[in-house]
Amino acid sequence: MPPVSPFYGCCYLLRRLHPFGQYILYRPRVAKEILLGARARPSALFAPSASCAMFSLRSRCLLGLQLYRTSSTAPQAIDIHHRSVILGSSSWQLQKRDEPTGRNDSPVFHSKCSGRDCGVVGERVTVLTIDGGGIRGLIPGTVLAFLEEQLQKLDGPEARLADYFDYIAGTSTGGLITAMLAAPGNNWKRRPLFAAKDINPYYLKHGPHIFPQKCCGLAAVLATAWGPKYDGEYLRTETRGLLRQKRVRDTVTNVIIPTFDVKLQQPIIFSKYDETLKDALLSDVCIGTSAAPTYLPAHQFWTQGCQYNLIDGGVAANNPTMVAMTMITEEIMAKAKKGDPKATKILESSSKKNECGRLLVLSIGTGLRSDEAHQYTARMCSEWGILGWLRKRGMAPIIDIFMAASSDLVDIHVASKFKLFGCESNYLRIQNNTLCSATAAVDTATPENMRRLIGMGKSMLEQRVTRVNVTTGKYEVVPGDNRTNAQALQDLAKELYKERKERRMKDEQASGGVARR
User: Can you give the pTM of this predicted structure?
Assistant: First the structure.
């Protein structure tokens, strides 16, 4: 490969390896921070923090890695296929694992992982992430109810998902589901407010009121042109009544809920990790992350003297998996720096192997359009004005495209990371790619469509396990894995049960014989 200039070398590498390379290319300063600083800490380029530059607060928006180091030596060459980057006189190599036969030219290495390679039972960090998608939240609701049922078969009828996941992350409708699963109930036992089986009945009851089907066709287009399609009053009233005065810090497990602040022009990630953000009311966070442009009005509120002007987190991270991995890494590193023995042990064990080996991740999507339902063409789009991009055939193309692109890029990058380190079995992504135009709408809350969405969730459980092809971006059946998604979830339930059982045994030993639930 011929020598390239520093900036175009940055562009090439970011386009190939960074999930938000297209975004960063228009911000040369960010590209410079990422790549020229790799000379100081090359591994940080592939850290979760680097993959979520757009998700951090202003103080961390340039990755929070403090990579930049002024250098008068320009990069001489960037060669992806040989997996090396030469920066001046120094070079670095990606961690190389055993290559599959006949795949020596592949940019990603993979070896089938064993249980030892993929984390030690009792020391893994368990993560659940839920995509945004409006009323399509019925799809992950169906999957989560099945998973919780499997856990109850193993650990008793009181088992709840929040007991087994260290972190639950959700965007938009996924953020609402996150709050339902993690908010404490109105009792002294601090059990979750909702069981997973209660999610779909809640959507069936309140969905038609949140998205009332009052107008369609030209009337809907005109309504969107002059303001949000829905006034959001029912959503605000119901969410505040449901969550009351519960705050982010009150959740029974860690939560991560992305939003986007239109005044600050940056994502805001609500979690227990931030001292200010954890004091926000869960109801305000849920209303904010659900405020999809053109559908629902933006939401403003104050907490600890800070004002937030929020819209749907899906414009930045419709699939919150990478955000969750970033926040987890930052929190573990911060705790380890303060001397926390558990965090220190996690870092030590992961540094000996790899960062993905310490994670056990379940990511659930809200569905994708089938190839047959992809109705947009360049000829069609070239004729659209503002109204066409905002409303076409009952959809909002500009919003749908942005959110689909966000979800797909994250899934491709996460899948690549787990494959790179040989820990693919630690990451399970369940997604439906058979939505038709009617079911793909985020606001079609008619009884018929909601029943179809639940049916799709059930059929998704019966489908073979799929994994995104990092080259084509398509979901493909995993070779050699004959399991259905339901069987994969049953296996995951067993792993989660073993993980929790091991922790409870350690707690019992540490407390002198008294274990917590």
Answer: 0.76
